[in-house]
Every structure is written in C-alpha cells, then in structure tokens.
From TrEMBL:
The chain crosses the membrane at residues 42-63, 75-98, 118-136, 157-176, 196-221, 242-267, 287-310. This is G protein-coupled receptor 55. PROSITE patterns: G_PROTEIN_RECEP_F1_1 (PS00237), G_PROTEIN_RECEP_F1_2 (PS50262). It is found in: Cell membrane. The gene is GPR55. It comes from Canis lupus familiaris. Keywords: Cell membrane, G-protein coupled receptor, Glycoprotein, Membrane, Receptor, Transducer, Transmembrane, Transmembrane helix. One of its GO terms (biological process) is positive regulation of Rho protein signal transduction. Signal peptide: none annotated.
Amino acid sequence: MTSRGSLGCPGPPTGDNMSWQLNRSQNCSFSDVDELMKTVQLAVHIPTFLLGLLLNLLAIRGFSTFLRKRRWPDYAATAIYMINLAIFDLLLVLSLPFKMALANVRAPLPSLCTLVECFYFISMYGSVFTICFISLDRFLAIRFPFLVSHLRSPRKIFGICCTIWVLVWAGSIPIYSFHGKMEKYTCFHNMSDGTWSAQVFFPLEVFGFLLPMAVMGFCSSRSIHILVGRRGLTQDWVQQKACIWTIAASLAVFVVSFLPVHLGFFLQFLVRNGFIVECRAKQNISLFLQLSMCFSNVNCCLDVFCYYFVIKEFRMDIMAHRPSRVQLVPQDTMTSRA
C-alpha cells in the first residue's frame, strides 16, 4: 500500500494505480481460507449430522404422539408446526454429507450440485418461515385466545405448512442459475455475478430474513410482555413460565443461527459488486461467511431446545388439567356406595 502524509489528502487514483488495484483484487487468493474451512467443516458437520439426525427423528416421533391422541386437540396446531420444522431440519442434516463432499471437489453432474444447493437453502429458509409462523401463531393465541381458536384447526395449520413448502420451493428458482455458464466450479462456491445482483439479493435478504426476523421479534417481545404482566393474575405461573422459556429459546436460536449468515451475505454482496476491493478484507469476509454458514447448520440441533420446552409445556398443561388421585378416590368411593 502507498503511504499517506499525515496532513495531506489522497488525490484521485491515476491510471497506473487503478490498474494495479484491479490486478491486486483479481490475484487475491482464498486457498488458505478454503483449506482452513475443510478442517472446520469436518469438525462441525460430522457431529451435527449424527446429533441432528437422531434428535429430529425423535422430535418427529414425539410430536406425532400428540397428533394421534385425540383427547389433546389443543396441542395439534403447535405439534404440526414442530413436525414441519423438524422435517426441514432433517432435510438440512441429510444434505450435509453431500455439501462437505461437493464443496471440495467438482460435482460429476451439474444437476447434482444444483439439487444439493436447493435442498440446503430450502431447508434453511423453510426453517426461517416455520419459526416465524410459530411465533406469530403463539402471539395470536396469547393475545386473542378466543378469536383465533377456530383458526388453529389442524387442517388450517397443515395448509399453512404446505404454503411454506410452496414458497421456499418457488424461492429456490434462482439457485438453478447460481453458477451461470461457468464451466469450472465447485458447489457453494464460484457463484455467478447474476446471483449477487441487487434484483436477486435484496428480495432474498428482505423477505427471506429481515421481514421474518421483524415479525418474530415483535411477536416474541409482545408475548413475553403479556405473560409477565399476567403473573399476579394467574394461578398457572409455572406453566406460563415454561411458555416464556419456549418463546425466548425460539428467538435465541433464530438470531444465533441466521443473523450472522445474512450479515455475511450482505458483506459478500458488497465484495461482488465492487464496494470492497481490498484483498485482506475480501479474505476475512469469505472466512466469516463460510464460518457463519457452517455454524448455522448447528441450528438443526439447537432447535431441540425449542422442542424440549414445548413438550415440557404440553406435559405441564396436561398435568394441570388432569384430575389428581386424591380427587378420583372419593369419586370412586361415592359411586360404589351409590
């Protein structure tokens, strides 16, 4: 880099300086970043795959029991949402081995690379929308319990989940042109310039993350505020406390999993559109983006905290409304005497 005087201001770049900066940007190497990420991915993705596969299969099995038992209809809506979230997480888990393999070698078929990228991003944004709708559904149930009770039927919630699948599949259309007409590329790398255009990037960033995060932040904060305000007015504070923990866990998992990734997307957008040209900065952004994507995959394991608090909330509510043994014994005695 050229030195600057302590009092002087840099003048406009000359033709030689501009060509030197352009060549420096083009010759910027990311091989060290890629080599480091190979080790990190192995250390993170292998346990994520094993734990995520086990935990999400158990979650699907656990919430399915609440759907099969007709005497617990109040939990059907939440159970359907949770099963949908677990399926998206399971789809992400199953794509991880292919992501690790194809990110380091050239795919034998371009369509295989596209398929793996589709599964990966569909599972990511499917989780985003599902968590957003879970938060909205819970807020409406807390704020307007009598008005929305008819809107939480299993059939309508199932329809919402199907709509989420349609939206994320339709939103995956730009993935088919991720690499454009490039002949040599590896999956999840070497994206075409069109992928980072404003027409593709900003709708993805706004509708795929910023808007769901705003909805979830508002619904979560209002729900917690309402529940805390009812502390002295309800006898089921233990159950309400479990509900607060469920909301807080969902919000924390959402922010930790998806905020760094989309910040990395924004920084990479600035790089690919020429706003950031310094080699060191580009290397750091590439490393940050790949690390954030790598650790966001742990989301499929972190969601187990949401499952845990929801199932705990279900069981506490069931126990609270189940007649105790002390109440049942006198009733049986009176019946036998009669």
